[in-house]
Amino acid sequence: MIPRKAFSIRLGWLGSPRIRNLNIRWSSTTPTVEGTSSPAPAKPAGSDSSAPSRDPVQLYDHLVETGVMKNDPYQRGVLQSMEQMYLNLKMYQPPEISANSSGNGGFFSKLFGKKSTGPLPPKGIYLYGDVGCGKTTLMDMFYRTIPSHLTKRRIHFHQFIQDVHKRNFHLHQLHGQDFDAAPKIADEIASEANVLCFDEFQVIDVADAMILRRLFDILMSPSHGTVLFATSNRAPDQLYENGIQRQSFIPAIELLKARNEVVYLKSPTDYRKIERESQGTYFFPPENKSLDDVRQAATNHIDNWFKLFADTGDVEWDRDLHIWGRPVRIPKSVKGRVAQFTFDELCNKPLSAADYLEITSNFPAIVLSDIPLMSVRQIDVTRRFITFLDAAYESHALLAVTAEKPFEHLFNDSVPGLSEELSRDVDSDADFLLESNMFSGDEEKFAFARALSRLKQMSSKEWHQTSSLNFD
């Protein structure tokens, strides 16, 4: 385990134990995870690395005409900003950056390192809005139109943060804990991509907040010239709201607002929850019954889906998946296809976001049994469950589960007023979570609302038909 160091304005404090495991290589379109057989999946709209032939408006029109997207007036309202960013990028000549532009991180490097001189890079876009309104789709569409003379990276924000911590850990192993890693990490990132596309930008941890402040200050300076396109559920001024030492993060928020056009996608539609034919991968007991009351049916559900996902592969029991030399136990699996866990095995263990990303990168299908009712008093377990769902969604994993209740009714507690909140009809809308007292912080509310939206999409036949898992 990587110990968390006492943090300061420099990066010597990095190495949070919750993000210690991911080992990412950056490729031409998307990062890959070392130890896996395939790249970390990107959204289809962002996976095209060929030279763009259309600008954002032309591409949107084409996707609507061919039935890939539905014409949405709210999304069209964002296209003007995307078009302007595209035109600015066509004319942009970024500074030349090497992986060691800022020197070796020592005293003289800090004193005489590369200065932030020259013209500012073009403004990027910070696109925020409610869950499922099409932010990621628009970002991935824009990714395809980025002019071919620029390098680009599209990455989920969870993965980006973990990669930064990994780089920091290795640099401190090489150079000692007093090494100022921020300039070196910024050099590496800027040399790999002129345009960074972040999906699901969020800040929930003081360590992440401090490193982002330092990195953004370097990356978006004239010397490095990195241009950002980010999606988020939160407006910039709401990032890291009520967080520890938030005042120290305010400069990063102001920089985000100064170097990006902040655009609100005010769409009433959650595209993930549009009714789609279900694949039948989720099993819930009938009303007034528990999983124990229907145990045989629940067991059959899990066994049948495991067999389908496994195909003809050999079943392994209690396999260890080694992540940075630390074993993570996989109770039942077929290599390269499916892993099976109970909820207790997956969410009651001290696993991190990086662990879940590594699991879903190695196994394109996950079978998860016995998801219980959850309590607001079990916030760590709840956060792990949400983090796992984020990893599964971002990896485009297939998910088969058994749970005590449908997901939108999983929370049960004796907290005054909570039962009334839970009794509301939320089958078609998780927005009530944003005003509830079910979580201690706003970020968890947004995260769970996002998870409910994604679970709806992941249960559809359409999701399964676009999986990388071959059932032949």
Provide the descriptors you would attach to this structure in a database record:
472 residues, alpha/beta, Rossmann fold, 2 domains, six-stranded mixed sheet, five-stranded parallel sheet, 15 helices, 37% helix, 15% strand, globular, disordered N terminus, ATP hydrolysis activity, ATPase_AFG1-like
Please characterize this protein's 3D structure.
One of its GO terms (biological process) is protein quality control for misfolded or incompletely synthesized proteins. Residues 29-39 have a biased composition (Polar residues). Residues 29-55 are annotated as: Disordered. By secondary structure, the protein is an alpha/beta fold. The chain has 15 helices and 13 strands. The longest helix is centred in the middle third of the chain and has 19 residues, at 157-175. It has helices at residues 56-65, 73-90, 107-112, 135-145, 157-175, 181-192, 206-219, 250-259, 295-310, 343-347, 353-362, 379-394, 418-422, 442-458, 461-465, and strands at residues 24-25, 32-33, 124-129, 152-156, 195-199, 227-232, 260-265, 282-283, 315-323, 326-334, 338-342, 365-371, 398-403. It folds into two domains: 17-269, 3-Layer(aba) Sandwich (Rossmann fold), CATH 3.40.50; 275-465, Rossmann fold (3-Layer(aba) Sandwich), CATH 3.40.50.
